[in-house]
Write a structure and sequence with these properties.
By secondary structure, the protein is an alpha/beta fold. It has 14 helices and 30 strands.
Length: 555
């Protein structure tokens, strides 16, 4: 454990976001409520606490277990066990709980007294080794009956009454009446004051919940700030300031700022935008890793000057990743990017959605590696301007953009091109792609086009086709088949060609017509598994009457 603590900072920082949030929430136990499981097996070392609350009613003939009346627990690594609620089972068997430190039993069962007593005595006998053993009020009658029978209780056992008073079971001494005790000298629970039990029962007042050491707050500031920066929104990090004085100002140092306002969000624009102003005035971080502003159908043009100030703030903090989504309620792009935005030497990843591009000079994004433009109107000159001013650009993604007929990607640095959807606002029927240096190409989404042509993709290594043309009549269906056929033929030279689910209908029409698919073709099934076309072809040949559903399901 000491070794883990010495290297805790590095190992915790490397955890996925979801696990770090899990740590923050501090939920280390496993809870089973009203289950019908007959054997609970916990073999993972990471599970330290097991809580079984109630056991559901199930018929014996529906149970796979040979003994449906028995609940078995096999958990060699848990440290804490709690069994409570109403149990519709006759016997509870602890197979292996060798690491157990604390146990709490507080349950009731529908069986007769003798059966319950026998089961309880077996449970207690198997828990002599634990450090803390407590029994709640629901089990008190059973304990009284066992005492009357002369059962020997362990010294670690404590019984909780209705007022959460823990009574330690005492052992033989000269001050206790030992008549009719049959080995165990004295035990009796009565509603009396603490003073009246003096000399007979040792009483300790305990809180109903054990105070747990706050190990998260004990971590160094740098690690806590790293954890806070991985939360989904900045407002989540701000809420941690209420935990204690230790956390009040931690969020102000996070290098990642994320603000979101979606469609129909109860957070009004009149509250949302001023709240960002307030947040930025309290931030003390001089260097930002990411700044994200999402206004999905929630951008209001009256706050344009404020948004520009926030962008300026992020750029002055040398932000590396910038995400702007600024759609109005009508899904229109209304935000015009200022000239200062086009000259930057720090941004490495840039995503722009709902923005209007009107650069008055040359673009200069010296360190930009990834550029994603969503629903932007971009002409061919702007595309060329971006390439000239982005010498390190590797990935270009255009989603539902318009304004161009030729997508001319001649930059030698661009290796990945994603063409996702095309919005036909200028009655453009044909789009041509000339990208002689790219290595990866993905064409997806809904294309409001008549035709997509690949002029030059000589360096291409892999491609993924997963698009639709939204055509219904017979002439359009024929054109859709012709387009897919031409794309496949244009990509015969590449190493790997993937066909996605969206193209399946057209794909199988071509196959039915006898079109010969190249050997580099792979098909993505509904589970996104990849299979060679040869496998699909063999399957189809073996059963000519099989329909599309049976083929895609692999039946």
């Amino acid at each position: 454990m000491k070794g883990d603590e010495d290297h805790g900072e590095d190992r915790l920082s490397a955890l996925p976001d979801i696990l770090i949030i899990y740590i923050l929430l501090r939920i280390p136990n496993t809870t089973l409520t009203q289950t019908t499981i007959t054997t609970i097996t916990l073999s993972k070392r990471c599970v330290k606490k097991l809580v079984v609350t109630g056991y559901g009613d199930c018929k014996a003939d529906e149970h796979p277990d040979p003994d449906p009346d028995m609940l078995k627990i096999n958990a060699p690594y848990i440290l804490s066990l709690k069994i409570g609620g109403y149990l519709l089972v006759s016997n509870i068997l602890l197979l292996n709980v060798s690491s157990l430190v604390e146990v709490n039993l507080n349950f009731n069962k529908c069986e007769n007294g003798a059966t319950i007593d026998e089961n309880m005595s077996g449970l207690i006998s198997s828990l002599f080794h634990v450090k803390e053993f407590s029994i709640g009020i629901l089990c008190n009658k059973v304990i009284s009956r066992l005492q009357a029978r002369g059962f020997t209780f362990p010294s670690n056992l404590k019984v909780l009454d209705s007022q959460d008073v823990t009574k330690s079971l005492i052992w033989p001494n000269t001050n206790v009446d030992s008549s009719n005790n049959r080995g165990w000298k004295y035990f009796h629970i009565r509603e009396r004051s603490t003073s009246s039990l003096a000399g007979r029962i040792s009483v300790k007042l305990l809180k109903s919940k054990t105070k747990v050491k706050d190990r998260i707050s004990a971590l160094p500031d740098a690690l806590l700030i790293e954890i806070l920066s991985r939360l989904p929104e900045t407002k989540c990090a701000i809420r941690t300031s209420t935990l204690s004085k230790r956390w009040i100002h931690l969020w102000t140092y996070i290098p990642t700022l994320v603000f979101q306002r979606g469609y129909g969000n109860a957070f009004l624009a009149s509250d949302f935008f001023p709240s960002i102003d307030k947040t930025l005035t309290q931030c003390r971080q001089l260097k930002l890793y990411k700044f994200e502003l999402r206004c999905c159908h929630g951008y209001d043009i009256q706050f344009e000057s404020q948004v520009k100030n926030w962008i300026s703030y992020a750029l002055n903090c040398n932000v590396e990743e910038l995400y702007l989504e600024l759609f109005s309620e009508g899904s229109e792009a209304e935000f015009v990017l200022d000239d200062f935005f086009y000259i930057n030497s720090c941004i490495t990843k840039l995503t722009l959605a709902g923005c209007i591009f009107i650069p008055t000079g040359a673009i200069c994004w010296k360190k930009l590696k990834t550029l994603c433009i969503h629903r932007g109107i971009i002409d061919e000159d702007l595309i060329e301007n971006i390439q000239r001013g982005s010498p390190m650009l590797e990935t270009l993604e255009l989603e539902n953009c318009s304004g161009f007929m030729l997508l001319n990607i001649t930059s030698k640095s661009v290796k990945n091109l994603i063409f996702s959807g095309y919005v036909d606002v200028d009655d453009v029927d044909i789009i041509e792609i000339n990208a002689p240096n790219i290595l990866s190409l993905k064409i997806c989404g809904q294309l409001l086009l008549w035709k997509l042509v690949l002029l030059n993709v000589a360096s291409l290594v892999n491609a993924h086709l997963d698009y639709s043309l939204d055509m219904d009549d017979d002439d359009n269906i024929e054109q859709e088949q012709m387009m897919l056929k031409q794309l496949i033929l244009s990509l015969q030279h590449i190493k790997e060609l993937k066909i996605g689910m969206t193209c399946f209908t057209t794909f199988f029409r071509l196959e039915a017509e006898g079109f010969e698919f190249p050997s580099n073709l792979k098909v993505l099934d509904s589970l996104e598994g990849i299979s060679d076309w040869s496998d699909w072809s063999d399957l189809n040949d073996s059963d000519e009457d099989s329909d599309l559903d049976s083929i895609t399901n692999g039946d």
